[in-house]
Specification:
Layout (H helix, E strand, L loop, with lengths): L6 E6 L5 H10 L3 E7 L3 H10 L5 E2 L2 H5 L6 E4 L3 H13 L3 E5 L6 H14 L3 E4 L6 H11 L6 E9 L10 H17 L5 E7 L9 E7 L5 E7 L6 E8 L3 E5 L7 E11 L8 E10 L8 H15 L7 H19 L5 E2 L8
Parallel strand pairs: 1-2, 1-4, 2-3, 4-5, 5-6, 7-10
Antiparallel strand pairs: 7-11, 8-9, 8-15, 9-10, 11-12, 12-13, 13-14
The structure holds nicotinamide-adenine-dinucleotide (NAD).
Length: 346
């Protein structure tokens, strides 16, 4: 039996993130990089220096007109995701688009429907869903190790690159939203957000995003480009155990604490009793694979087999709907905003 031919992909956008995608797709035996496309000749020069055999172009139309291209990988600014993805789907190409999928839910719905109508794969770059420690935490939650999850807090702060066109909510929170929705198997129903534009007028660089879930779980995401230290730390508190997922740790990224507080109702009119439990702290073994490589392999597999990606267009839409609601709350001084219609279009 001859092996399946590799999936021929074209990378669109070679700025900060594009080179990471290119490196991973170049290393995948199941993929073949046909083009790198970017309107900036200096970006293409960098790509050619690194990978001289890969053709480059400043013209997206040239890529889309190439019938040998099976799929387009989009790593361009958020405002360009929708027009590029739409053109690629209309040209019959499978699409991988970086997070967040689009700049609003109407655009996200259009892409979801277009991909479905054409029978094409649409996958969103929610990279952390493919990250081994994130998958380990999901396995622990699903196995009931933590008991009932009460709440989750997460910090994603560092002295980060200020984006010119979007707030820190759109830049950083897609990661945490996609992780939370993957872990919990449900999307938030309401959000309220406070934030502040400390440096550039009109572009908030710090935001505290509160979320409520149908199950009663609450979560808070702290996102900021202003912090003296880099924190990528999430705490999950359950009725049985608690855990810390720290993505800046080299080895012990996940730590499970057999800690908790047991409550005993008073047997008479006396005071209730609380007993504090501080047991073992265990760091489970986590695979060392690079999340981006796993993500790239998954996209290639789905495009070749027609399997639905774990982070498909609907997952992308749920995150975009949450970001839209979070931005609305931020714009209205922290008012609680409902998240409805994230699972349907039209
Ligand atoms: N998954 C992750 O962990 C992760 C990390 C960082 C960035 N990202 C995402 O990657 C995307 C790109 O971010 P970045 O930081 O690399 O941005 P960037 O501004 O550094 O690079 C964007 C590149 O796209 C090019 N470009 C702009 N318009 C284009 C068009 N119409 N056609 C082709 N190329 C075009 C620009 O010239 C630039 O080279 C964003 O969606 C961002 O959210 C994802």
């Amino acid at each position: 039996m001859p092996a399946d031919p590799p999936l021929r992909v074209a990378l669109v956008g070679y700025g900060y993130w594009g080179p990471n995608l290119l490196r991973n797709y170049m290393e995948l035996p199941e993929a073949w990089v046909s083009w790198v496309c970017d309107p900036r000749p200096e970006a293409l020069e960098k790509a050619s220096t690194r990978y001289p055999a890969v053709p480059t172009t400043t013209d997206l139309a040239e890529v889309l007109a190439d019938d040998s291209v099976d799929a387009v990988l989009i790593a361009t600014p958020i405002s360009t995701h929708h027009p590029i993805a739409k053109a690629a789907l209309e040209a019959g190409k499978h699409v991988f688009v970086e997070k967040p999928m689009t700049a609003d839910t109407a655009q996200a719905c259009e892409l979801v429907e277009l991909a479905a109508a054409r029978g094409l794969t649409l996958m969103v770059g929610h990279t952390f869903v493919y990250s081994p420690p994130v998958r380990k935490v999901k396995a622990l939650i699903d196995a009931g190790e933590l008991g009932d999850v009460y709440f989750i807090t997460t910090q994603r702060v560092n002295l980060g690159l200020h984006q010119k066109d979007v707030s820190v909510v759109w830049d950083l929170a897609p990661h945490d939203l996609s992780i939370l929705y993957y872990w919990l198997g449900e999307a938030a129903t309401t959000t309220n957000v406070t934030g502040r534009a400390c440096i550039a007028t009109g572009i908030p660089d710090v935001a505290f995003i509160n979320l409520r879930f149908p199950s009663g779980i609450i979560a808070e995401i702290q996102a900021s480009w202003l912090s003296p230290v880099k924190l990528r730390r999430t705490i999950v508190v359950g009725s049985e155990k608690m855990l810390v997922y720290d993505d800046t740790e080299n080895v012990e990224k996940v730590k499970l604490f057999d800690h908790g507080v047991d409550f005993q109702e008073p047997s008479d009119f006396g005071e209730f009793q609380l007993s504090y439990r501080t047991g073992d702290i265990v760091s489970p073994k986590v695979q060392g694979h690079e999340p981006l490589w796993l993500e790239a392999s998954h996209f290639v597999h789905c495009a070749r087999t027609g399997e639905t990606p774990e982070t498909d267009g609907w997952a992308g839409l749920r995150v975009v709907a949450s970001l839209e609601a979070a931005q609305a709350s931020l714009d209205q001084g922290g008012r609680e905003v409902s998240l409805t219609g994230a699972d349907s279009c039209g």
